[in-house]
């Protein structure tokens, strides 16, 4: 893992219980956990088939970054102003440096 490849800045946020909404249900608030420099490994877009009413494109991105403890699939990532939900977290020592890989899907 080379630091020079960390060209992107991502913000990892965790869900926290917020104040109740007008119906008494707890609203979810998002609290920033950390801002990390990351390498964009892949960015894919899967288009909806023709004639599939109401379906949207699915955007998936994978980031590689330094390890940060406690990142879970219930967290979300903000990158370039877009929100992504974390779908997978892989930990590894990417070439002898502690790192993690986050696979995220765009929230639409």
UniProtKB/TrEMBL annotation:
Pfam families: Phage_HCP (PF05521). Gene3D superfamilies: Bacteriophage SPP1 head-tail adaptor protein. This is Head-tail adaptor protein. It comes from Stagnihabitans tardus.
């Amino acid at each position: 893992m080379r630091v020079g490849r960390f060209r992107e800045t991502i913000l990892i946020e965790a869900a926290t219980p917020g104040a109740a909404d007008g119906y008494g249900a707890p609203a979810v608030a998002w609290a920033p956990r950390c801002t990390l420099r990351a390498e964009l490994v892949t960015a894919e877009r899967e288009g909806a088939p023709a004639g599939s009413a109401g379906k949207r494109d699915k955007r998936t991105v994978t980031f590689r970054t330094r390890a940060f403890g406690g990142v879970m699939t219930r967290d979300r990532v903000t990158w370039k102003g877009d929100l992504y939900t974390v779908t997978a977290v892989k930990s590894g020592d990417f070439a002898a440096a502690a790192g993690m890989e986050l696979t995220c899907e765009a929230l639409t």
